[in-house]
Fold each of these.
Amino acid sequence: MQLSQSEENYIKAIYALSEETGKEISTNDLAEKMATKASSVTDMLKKLTDKDLLKYKKYQGCTLTKNGREIALAIVRKHRLWEVFLVEKLQFGWDEVHAIAEQLEHIQSNQLTNKLEAFLGFPKVDPHGDPIPNINGEFDPSPKRVLLSKCEKGNKGIVMGVEDGEPSFLQYLNKIGFKLGLNIKVEDRLSFDGSLIIEMDGKTLQFSHLVASKIAIQLID
Amino acid sequence: MQLSQSEENYIKAIYALSEETGKEISTNDLAEKMATKASSVTDMLKKLTDKDLLKYKKYQGCTLTKNGREIALAIVRKHRLWEVFLVEKLQFGWDEVHAIAEQLEHIQSNQLTNKLEAFLGFPKVDPHGDPIPNINGEFDPSPKRVLLSKCEKGNKGIVMGVEDGEPSFLQYLNKIGFKLGLNIKVEDRLSFDGSLIIEMDGKTLQFSHLVASKIAIQLID
DNA sequence: TTTAAAATTTAGATATGTCTAAAAAATAAT
DNA sequence: ATTATTTTTTAGACATATCTAAATTTTAAA
Ligand SMILES: [Mn+2]
Ligand SMILES: [Mn+2]
Ligand SMILES: [Mn+2]
Ligand SMILES: [Mn+2]
């Protein structure tokens, strides 16, 4: 089935919200995510329901069907593979690739996706640490990840992922030398604002709760 | 100025027809090229005229403005660079890349185009021998090319280009071992149907006039 | 040079995707 | 249990890109 770019973006957004919440997605939440109006969302939900990509009951929100989830995973796969290409092969910074990948993820050619994956050496994660679904939409089993914002004083770990999509946030991380794979330790946690004092690469840094909530780590010992 | 995919395709088609004929492009010719109706073309010509991408007088056809030509060249540049990428890096056949490049040529990011060009080593021609405009829309001076269909008995040359866009034609060339760079010689020319007897790589082949008109060679001695 | 044919444009319709404003339903507050 | 608020849907409009059928202009023929 041939989907428009707009339809694909809705599917992807619903998938992303479902991953976060696990529940049904409300019209308003989706409208906010898509930076559009609730009425536009309602129209689109009807259309996607007719195409059997989601289940939708008036006033009750929506969830993806198996079909819809498969399409979402295919788009996510393309997005992340292209991000790897842009960083690994074209020397883009991790803060520059999301917007371009938003376009490239809509290119239609399974052969292209699969050959690109092979060319890149079957990467398992994208430049922001997000896992890349394989040709069947499956993720590799990956180590358990925790948001830095949920960590306690004394916790140690390895940086596994950061939220992509906001260049200024990623540029800030560049500036302080923050990279995937680094060892970090929570030196202290200020309970009144949730900010953290971090030790990383010999440096001491302070992260606001907001910043810490966009960083995922794997806890060690 | 942000153009729709459809607008870009019109600009590109007008450019291609202009290269062929050198004259103004008629509504009907453009309709045929775009596989659409003349009325749709008229609507689009008005829109593109308003955007100063072409000059158009009712019933008199159209030509690109400087502005329009620059945009056309930027799209052609992207198309051909992506074709090189697909063949050189992803191991696609030259018969498989045109349709995918038709999509990729619309990706908007000058930085991407320029980094891709560098990654590919600043290629001067695409897999079908078509020249690739540089960042300023300029072509390298290239040796004079002649259509094989215009050659006489006894002419010798090197294969420089083939018409892309028709997979079955390119697959036929694959089958007979025809490649860019080969030396060929016109053994004979049948005047009544314009077909040619060719010697290439030790083999003797017969090309119809139609096939010969889709092959360009550089004449030698 | 008047008529016939071909090419082109206009008029009116359809489909997609979006919007604002108003109506309806669900949820929260009294 | 009513009333008020929030959420969601519907109604009606607009922009893009396309189509068919009819009108107009240009070109070719008689
Ligand atoms: Mn991204
Ligand atoms: Mn990413
Ligand atoms: Mn091509
Ligand atoms: Mn080509």
Amino acid sequence: MGRRKIEMKMVTDRSCRQVTFSKRRTGLFKKANELATLCAVQIAIIVFSPGGKPFSFGNPGVEPVVGRFLNRGDEHHDGQSEPSGSATGRSERLVEELNGIQRRIQLEKKRGEALEKALARAKASAAAAGGGSDSLISRSVEEMGMEELVEMRRRLVDLREQLDGRAVEMEASSTLLLLSNKSESAGDSRGGSWGGGRRRRSVAKWRD
Amino acid sequence: MGRRKIEMKMVTDRSCRQVTFSKRRTGLFKKANELATLCAVQIAIIVFSPGGKPFSFGNPGVEPVVGRFLNRGDEHHDGQSEPSGSATGRSERLVEELNGIQRRIQLEKKRGEALEKALARAKASAAAAGGGSDSLISRSVEEMGMEELVEMRRRLVDLREQLDGRAVEMEASSTLLLLSNKSESAGDSRGGSWGGGRRRRSVAKWRD
DNA sequence: AGAGCTATATATAAGTG
DNA sequence: TCACTTATATATAGCTC
């Protein structure tokens, strides 16, 4: 969206990263505000700057939205509201978190597919331009293969780095989630047929 | 940003509003993902659809970010504090599943980046044109590269399929786990599929 | 619903003061 | 580091299937 296209990789330069963060944070909040305005919905965004400073946006505020998400009431909205006393709140929240993860997977999948298509087109294009010789294509493919090998190696290294620390975070939060859930009675009646191995969507409670 | 400029007022038509919500929510999450990637920051978004259904995005997850915000927020905080504890066997498994999914997301992301690079290279190579190439030597390398590509793609496609099934499985299984939390029995074990619903594809624990 | 498809509206990477 | 500008890259409104 600027003079040049940038790679979706962490900006290495601290200064540039800070600038990018500020600009994009502004843009993100603006988008969130538009979404809230156009669709009259509750939304909350929490983001920590590279320096660790917290920034937030919320309609009508961060706490009401987070609270609602965490199932602590505040259902002052027209839509459906949790049956009071429901013990499935946390479960549903976890499910939504999982759904969120699933959506991210879908996003990445889409991106991958788009890239594959583009790659295919590029190769076809190169083939057409190359006339009778396939040397160009061969060279491209060859380089790509080499590139892949290098990338794969780097990928593994990066991956391990990213996982360290993240796994810890995930573990802590997830554990808290589960432990806190334990103290409640789950007495939900809908689950009668769970043991039978019903597959797919069972907890759909919202209409979207 | 479309064919026509729209007023920043609530979209009156319910149907249009829903469509707008879906599109913009997708765009917002995408932006958030980019921000998180480019600047390596923690971010969480929670939004309720017009119908009241919750959607969320989080890097590394909603819970970690919200928790950090609530506990150490410089701007807001409601004094919420979570008790800490150790993981149980069951939660450990769930945590591992979550971590696994997170790892896969990272892999997908990396894959996209790699393909993107390859694409750029292919284009550049094709554009540069004129490059002579000897069929003798590069032939073998070419074939190797080709095989490499084909093989890698196959594996990636497999991974994608697994991820899709896995995510769905996680959703159902987690819900089952939590709902039947008090009945208990746990048992489990690493290898098997969960309680009831398995899918045809047995998910091989990472390694390939 | 949900997946494309443009024509436009916006966001924003660099550049400039 | 900020405030602005500007050339490009993206997002998306309205449609179609």
Amino acid sequence: MARTTGSDGEKTEAAVREAAVNLIARYGYEAMSMRQLAAEVGVQAAALYRYFPTKGDLLFTLMREHMEGLREAWENARPADADPAEQLAAYVRNHIAFHIERRHATHVSNMELRSLSPDRLTQILRMRTAYEKDLRAILRDGAEAGVFSVEDTGLTAMALIQMMTGVIVWFRPGERLSVTEVTATYLSMTMRLVGAKIGGTEEKHVHEHAQLRA
Amino acid sequence: MARTTGSDGEKTEAAVREAAVNLIARYGYEAMSMRQLAAEVGVQAAALYRYFPTKGDLLFTLMREHMEGLREAWENARPADADPAEQLAAYVRNHIAFHIERRHATHVSNMELRSLSPDRLTQILRMRTAYEKDLRAILRDGAEAGVFSVEDTGLTAMALIQMMTGVIVWFRPGERLSVTEVTATYLSMTMRLVGAKIGGTEEKHVHEHAQLRA
DNA sequence: AATATAATAAAACGAACGTTCAATTAATTC
DNA sequence: GAATTAATTGAACGTTCGTTTTATTATATT
């Protein structure tokens, strides 16, 4: 046999991407074989090489596009003129929504960094750093304006990122909590963690503020 | 050649364990070959099988002993009679100290769960759940006593664990911050996150409390 | 000194790996 | 409807994998 009836390059490539994200997230990049991936798509292994020159290229493509998607989502969600608390809330909401929506792709981007070649690793890390830089800026602005009380901007940013991204480890859609509920709770935890004060008032207002916009 | 001068089973086994933790942490379990591991130890691949029947057994042994070590460390660090804030502080201190001390082993235990057989995965997850259960209990006690204000005990516990364990991702000994400084900052972030109040006073006291014992 | 045992090397096993190549068929273009 | 292009198969390549077997040597025991 050769070309099959109804075969379509675009559809096959999309199927390969989706199957690859799922398989790598479940078994890991090294553990997934090209034959296994091909079988999942319903195609022979050789056919994969029409779309991705090597297994490594496939991984890098998936990661790069995931990072680009994250950047893009944040640029769209970012409020133009807003106080630091408002901006932080937007950052948290976008981060959690994006990561829950693309759980498997996030897993791949976080777990398979070591399977990238050095220069590709650098590229991905650069994108990640750029994204995290905005969070640090928000925290710094808030600290300088006196609405946040953070001891160490960089450390707090890392702690928040780890905390938020960690959602994908345990969150399963359709279980005890909805995305909205999870986001609301994380938002209020975030606001307390950075010691957010709205108009010089105490903690209770942070709760209300957070839940208002979740 | 065969047995080499100065060869010693105990030393070789210890060298295998240490090299395995480092290699798996750096390259991943699937990516590390038995020949690579043997070369790191300075031995032929066949010699490894005197100590571990299969590659999978090696991984499981490393993980199980890491989890047992974590449990043991916490049992020793746990304060006998203490209020929830005191207990939470002890939990955070122990968790961060243990994970920074055993960065590579923690990486293995967190990243290579998918390489375990189903029943072994269950065993490791059971140990992890048992450890995390104590944190949930502390949070619940604090919430009931009115010294913490947490909306969802389970969710808060997960957020805290992710936040604390995340330290190993970016922390490098001998860089900008010392272990003591990092622990102090994480402690105060934790206390703020759970809305800790000491004797009904406000947030500022939480800071002092946290930094006092870091 | 002889014997037993512990620790390793060296070589080999079949299986699976990523990848390439030539052949073949479906869809498109002219 | 003939020629071209797109999509895929099936078979094969050399390499590496985890593991086993057998032989060999160092150490411990008697």
